[in-house]
Amino acid sequence: MNDQLEQIKAQSKIAPPTGGRGDSSVSVFAPATVANVVCGFDVLGFAVDAPGDEVVMRVTGKPGITISKITGDNGRLPMDPAKNTVSVSVKHYLESIGRTDLGLDIELHKKMPIGSGLGSSSASTVAGLFAAKTLLNDQRDVAQLLPFAMKGEEMACGHGHADNVAPALMGGFVLIRSYEPLDVVRLPHPKDLWCAIVFPDVDVPTREARQIIRNKINMKDAVTQWGNVAGLVSGLFMNDIDLIGRSMKDVLVEPVRSMLIPGFYQMRQMAMELGAVSFGISGSGPSVFAFTKDEQTAHAVIQKLQAFLSGMKIHSESYVSTVNDTGPRVL
Amino acid sequence: MNDQLEQIKAQSKIAPPTGGRGDSSVSVFAPATVANVVCGFDVLGFAVDAPGDEVVMRVTGKPGITISKITGDNGRLPMDPAKNTVSVSVKHYLESIGRTDLGLDIELHKKMPIGSGLGSSSASTVAGLFAAKTLLNDQRDVAQLLPFAMKGEEMACGHGHADNVAPALMGGFVLIRSYEPLDVVRLPHPKDLWCAIVFPDVDVPTREARQIIRNKINMKDAVTQWGNVAGLVSGLFMNDIDLIGRSMKDVLVEPVRSMLIPGFYQMRQMAMELGAVSFGISGSGPSVFAFTKDEQTAHAVIQKLQAFLSGMKIHSESYVSTVNDTGPRVL
């Protein structure tokens, strides 16, 4: 890896100020993600095809990272490069490969809601890191960017969790087996697993959603939970959607967090009655998601849930896709 | 299943007093099992080729279950059919298929230590149930016997856990995803995974080993644990012995139970230095086991550990085998 790093440094020095790829700018999309996946609190996550964020990155003549534009955030995100998760992550990355001499400008186009429980900051961060990696012609596996992406998460959420950034970066279903040392495992999944996401536009800050979780739990509940985590992982490997559905039960976090989501259990019942395989909270909420066996059922679920939320005068957004196996991509 | 049950009843009524198979006696071996598998407390277990127990079952002319002989138990097991796990389980099974008119005599030959943490009662129970199933020509999947085997466990250990009986019955690696409803999943495993077992002959009653486990645990530790459970299951599916090894860490139960096993951490160090992939407590102990990548290393481990225990004046037994995929078998 050190050899590879030297090579990147050498290559990327050939042609400044255009980075190493020869291009002086790049546009990148990175996907939204569903963390926890009901029973796998803090260890499981997967990427979806939509929504996601876009970053346009340009090599500038002057060392340092700038942010020239942010759209779609209603002014909520900091333009200060020292405070924005994207620029902070990219800075850590450039430092790690000894390219602090480089000048990069960032345009961030938010194409997904902030504070939705869909890994909004992760999508931006991963888009930024992948753009930098592309400009620098860094040929290493994207998973190498994970520690830098986690730096961004640490700033955004107050903790360096990886269950959003890892799937946003690597695509597909990802298990974070361990944080120290960091050990991530990419899991397979049934190709015909559809995901219906509904974001009810109510405020559930990640920090608060985390604070209401109990620190002390019953061993008995923990056993139930890891039986289900093991069942979910088995179902993913066995292509057994019914086992996946049976395993997606959360006796520890959902009972608390669901209180922050209006009509959560009614929405679950509606989704299950329409034929969903499972239903739960995406990340720390308020977005909810259902797995279904086909696209049609996924659309039926979002239609029903959005009508229900609308009846409660709650605006919502919805997304339907299969699991995204690509991760970030150049546009 | 009800149709199948009617068929069994009908078939098994054709030729009493010889059961349904036409044979009037059968000898069955059932394997010892390693429950918990370090991180999978109460949800994971696997079967080994050795040791195991044997049951000889004979059809008698008189309704009811008798126990005519028990060997290898040093007089520790009850001869009373109302108190012996084997006869109790078989009785539940006969009742479930409406064959209480049948007379069965049991000879139990203990070929493994009692109270060893190797699923001693499960091996006996499964041998008895499989013998009855064989005599009755019950063609259903062996997994159907699980509820009856759990009745035996309930009597033997004070709780109806399935992490020993399920692998003893089904062979291989088994996940008990859920108890209510009972949901078991057979997991694959690398063919070249060797298991070295050492039983230090010290007294660790299952009930006490269970009582010292804390009821309240930290959420943080639980997350670490289910990350590892998910890693272990992934490693089994991926044939990745290193991932299996990295995942076999227990931050919740082992730190407490290891106190009941003299020299536990020294033995771990010895095993790991000899090249073991993992090391831990089998079930509730005092038996310990190591996974290795080959037979030679497994033998080196048991040799070293037995010499160490011998130095502490502790008698021990040892066993080396791969994972047993067969479960019970007619001898």
Automatic annotation (TrEMBL), chains A, B:
EC assignment: 2.7.1.39
Compartmental location: Cytoplasm
Name by which UniProt lists this protein: Homoserine kinase
Enzyme class, broadest EC rank: transferase
Record key words, sorted: Amino-acid biosynthesis, ATP-binding, Cytoplasm, Kinase, Nucleotide-binding, Threonine biosynthesis, Transferase
Gene encoding the protein: thrB
Pfam family for this entry, one: GHMP_kinases_N
Catalysed reaction equations from the record: L-homoserine + ATP = O-phospho-L-homoserine + ADP + H(+)
Organism of origin: Mucilaginibacter myungsuensis
